[in-house]
Amino acid sequence: MMMNPATDSEGGVIDMSADGEQRYDAPPRIRGRVFVVRGDITQEHVDAIVNAANTTLLGGGGVDGAIHRAAGPELLAECRTIGGCRTGDAVITRGYRLPAKYVIHTVGPIWRGGNAGEAELLASCYSSSLKLAAEHGVHTLAFPSIGTGAYGYPVSKAAQIAIKAVTDCLQTDPSINEVRFVCFDERTLDAYERALSATGR
Ligand code: ADP
């Protein structure tokens, strides 16, 4: 006899059969909308890419430097007019010479051991960016691994927070069709793939 699988209130399937381990299969509204890829975010053909900026918005190293180099000097000129961004917040600019129409700049927390509100601030980077994206009619969006470079956030913890924050936001926002996590190196890719597969996808 066929048994119907257990479902949660959202229609996500709870699978307890395979190896006794409980897996949570993400609800249909999330399935097919969140992807993890390896690559250079400056090359992504999406409506908006997210930048891991610093509070000055005046450019830095890592992904920020790469985005400014690829977008051209007009990006820095627009950032100067904004006057800064607080940790956990996000601001939006045009994408200039990038394939993406917009750049959403968010500022991750500097890792101080984990007891200084880092997790909430990192989650806020993702939710603030998605809110701004939806307000600007963005349907496809690419994130780098915010906070895990110069700011020192442990990548496996950051990946879990990132995936949860994004999937939570997508539950209530039908306007975002696709979110890509663009990982620059193998270790980051592995952490995000693990975090995504823990949601059952
Ligand atoms: P933060 O200061 O928030 O830690 P970093 O730019 O130092 O930001 O690092 C964030 C992540 O972005 C790191 O995993 C780094 O390897 C990655 N990264 C660097 N350049 C790129 C790029 N061109 N595309 C995607 N990710 C990148």
Structural commentary:
- The protein is an alpha/beta fold.
- It has one domain (34-197): Leucine Aminopeptidase, subunit E, domain 1.
- The chain is 34% helix and 20% strand.
- The chain has helices at residues 62-71, 73-82, 118-135, 155-172, 186-197, and strands spanning 6-7, 13-15, 23-25, 34-38, 48-53, 90-94, 102-107, 140-143, 178-183.
- The strands form two sheets. A six-stranded mixed β-sheet has the order 4-9-8-5-7-6, sandwiched between helices.
- β6 (90-94) and β7 (102-107) form a beta hairpin.
- α3 (118-135) runs parallel beside α4 (155-172) and α4 (155-172) packs across α5 (186-197).
- The structure holds adenosine-5'-diphosphate.
- Residues 40-42, 52, 62-64, 66, 108, 144-151, 182, 184-185, 188 line the site of adenosine-5'-diphosphate.
